[in-house]
């Protein structure tokens, strides 16, 4: 039997899911929790095969509960079941360690199938979630480090690449030396380089300056 723990703040949702799973020959609901904190405590006490986790709950939400469970029990298999599909929910949940991500619009049989698949070690994602992940991956692949530079930081990077000192940059832009040093530090961090020379090489390599 696949032992399941339900964590959801809506009693009717827990009742509906539990009722359907109870008639499955290979799935058994061994516990329920109304918020992430109680769910975290029950997960560690019961050690279910699968944890079904809602996201938006009082006391402790699903993301924090997932993080807490995974920190204490890295082998836990958590399926997020929620109504939310926005980036602010999907990626933090997956990064926290959730194995699968389902929507509450899924049918009962789809949820049961997701439980079985996740139990086997597979990752189940709703088509909408998969689409968002591919969209985010595509944007990330086309994102360059210098895209994060501000207009002022780009100006200073150009002057660095031209061989200007911090004082010369300060004089050229009519800003203080301290401000220049702060901008240079930010530029090095954003470009992931160690010094001004590497920053200048980056600028030439990416055709930011002739």
TrEMBL record:
Superkingdom, natural source: Bacteria
Pfam family, one: Response_reg
Signal peptide: none
Organism: Carnobacterium antarcticum
Keyword tRNA-binding tagged: no
Modification sites for 4-aspartylphosphate: 54
Segments forming domain HTH luxR-type: 142-207
Protein name stated in the entry: Response regulator
PROSITE patterns in alphabetical order: HTH_LUXR_1, HTH_LUXR_2, RESPONSE_REGULATORY
Keyword vocabulary terms for this entry: DNA-binding, Phosphoprotein, Transcription, Transcription regulation
Record carries keyword Coiled coil: no
Residue ranges of domain Response regulatory in the record: 3-119
């Amino acid at each position: 039997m696949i032992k399941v723990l339900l964590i959801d703040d809506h009693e009717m949702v827990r009742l509906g899911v539990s009722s359907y799973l109870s008639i499955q020959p290979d799935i058994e609901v061994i516990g329920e929790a109304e918020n992430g904190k109680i769910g975290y405590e029950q997960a560690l006490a019961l050690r279910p095969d699968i944890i079904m986790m809602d996201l938006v709950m009082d006391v402790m939400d699903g993301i924090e509960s997932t993080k807490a469970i995974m920190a204490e029990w890295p082998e836990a298999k958590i399926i997020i079941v929620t109504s939310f599909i926005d980036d602010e929910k999907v990626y933090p949940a997956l990064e926290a360690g959730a194995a699968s991500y389902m929507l509450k619009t899924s049918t009962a049989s789809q949820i049961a199938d997701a439980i079985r698949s996740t139990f086997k070690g597979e990752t189940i994602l709703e088509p909408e979630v998969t689409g968002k992940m591919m969209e985010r991956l595509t944007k990330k692949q086309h994102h360059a480090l210098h895209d994060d530079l501000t207009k002022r930081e780009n100006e200073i990077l150009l002057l660095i690449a031209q061989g200007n000192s911090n004082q010369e940059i300060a004089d050229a832009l009519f800003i203080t030396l301290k401000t220049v040093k702060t901008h240079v530090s930010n530029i090095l961090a954003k470009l992931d380089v160690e010094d001004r020379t590497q920053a200048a090489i980056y600028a030439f390599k990416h055709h930011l300056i002739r």
